[in-house]
């Protein structure tokens, strides 16, 4: 049995993972030497990725030492229409999912430092951000976070939810009342005792002879200290929010991009940003820093703020310092920020993965400075300023590997996996019984350790578990597969199932499966999912496989029906048909009529269909349930006819 809640789930709120993010999704370097993987964005003057570079076009230094670039591969990330869909032709909904059909996408998380943006001043930026979300493809995932605390949405394909949340953000910052003392002036007075700045402010506030007015000077010092204290508190909150986000990304694989929308950042020196730099290197995170430009004129006071330009310079300087440490790009969002997000989307549509020769002492330290340049004048290169040497995956426990895969929004492809779910109604508890069937292929060696997490439509974890199984392989035309299943009970609703596996030698795989835990219902009758299996392998019960493989001449079909009253059954029929696909022409069919009145509101339908005349290949079983001449539901399930062994 699965052990509930064995796998701890860490909420990951933010970051843009621009990636077919997992190592298994990207091309693998093959070389006789150890290589450092370095991800680099190279774009032209219009922010479109440059795609024709070779390894010889790149120059890389690690800790000031030039290193040979052994390989360079361009990784496209922009998904095309229809990418990420794994559906049977003509199918009404998804019945099985395979990680081998997975299309790498981008993980985009928009992080908003809302307290640094004046109230209402960020509304136009949020509208542009919502348009950016609309531009993402089907294989992409998007999330939203408010720094340092507040609303967050985990990686999701529910773009409408993110757009609605963005519409509710516009800035929560309040304007300083001490606007006659600039931020830079306050820091110079309070932190450094700058006499010249103090006299300048005193003359502005108290008159030309105020430099000897001790009362005026004392007031200026006190107000400056208060301004500095409030500003430092806000800055610490923002920095800690960023550090927490980056820490949450360290366990994910692949290059990450954090898009941070901010009104600015006040820092005293670069040392305050070193922890962000360290975590950015450890998590392979690149930054896009979007500064919301505030007006220099306060329309609410109808006055020009003499210190507004100084304030803006101070806020921008912190972002520029962060950019210098992390290789970030600062983008200034003014009246029309839409072109900035369009540039961002283009730049995130592809990157280069470089294989750089590893030095003999590189792993002796946690991280090293790195520079990347390209031998072209008409391109712009973006790469991180440091590279981190991560913990060897072989040293991680099975639990750690499973948890890492379950937290990742993208599938791990090292072991091919397929999963199917079957939903039926538990009439005693009014919950849904969900049977989860899975296959693990490739060169998997048992025993297998599975981890699973089930999330509801709001992204909340409602069930987790872990199980080790030791099953014998089933040999198919595509090689051996290991099959197993388990059952969960959940309230009706929409869910996302994530399943991960580690085999006996550490090979990994994971798959994501959308699941509708509902029975189909019309009028007095409801119907559970259709199960099909090889009749020669079934006994008193039908074991639900991911996809049935029929080697005999009979296919066993099973479902459950639920009625408001037992009198419903004598008006109910089930039509079974076999076709090439969900809407294809019928190859074989039969109709079953319920006889007599059953003393129960639940009936199990099971019928064997003759498929002996069909050639080997893939087919679809279709079930059409009719009550009182009206259609209640249509069900379908794929299966294969194989040569008898």
Average pLDDT metric: 82
What is the CATH topology classification name of the domain at 107-171 and 233-347? Answer: Rossmann fold
Just give the CATH class of the domain at 107-171 and 233-347. Answer: Alpha Beta
Secondary structure category:
alpha+beta
Instruction: Quickly count the helices.
Output: 9
Percent strand: 35-45%
| Broad shape | elongated
The CATH homologous superfamily of the domain at 107-171 and 233-347 is named von Willebrand factor, type A domain
Main pleated-sheet profile: 6 strands, mixed
CATH architecture label of the domain at 107-171 and 233-347:
3-Layer(aba) Sandwich
Counted beta strands: 35
- The largest sheet has its strands arranged as 8-7-6-9-10-13
Gyration radius, in Å: 30 Å
Helix content: 10-25%
The poorly predicted ranges are 1-32, 81-93, 299-304
| Cα separation of the termini | 32 Å
Keywords:
disordered N terminus, single chain, Rossmann fold, Coagulation Factor XIII, Chain A, domain 1, 9 helices, alpha+beta
Would you kindly provide a written description of the structure presented here, covering whatever features stand out?
This protein is of the alpha+beta class. Among the domains are: 107-171 and 233-347, von Willebrand factor, type A domain (Rossmann fold, 3-Layer(aba) Sandwich); 519-645, Coagulation Factor XIII, Chain A, domain 1 (Distorted Sandwich), CATH 2.70.50. The strands form eight sheets. The chain has a six-stranded mixed β-sheet with strand order 8-7-6-9-10-13, sandwiched between helices. A hairpin with a 4-residue loop joins strand 7 (141-147) and strand 8. Helix 3 crosses helix 5 (214-249). The chain is elongated. Mean pLDDT is 82; it is low at 1-32, 81-93 and 299-304.
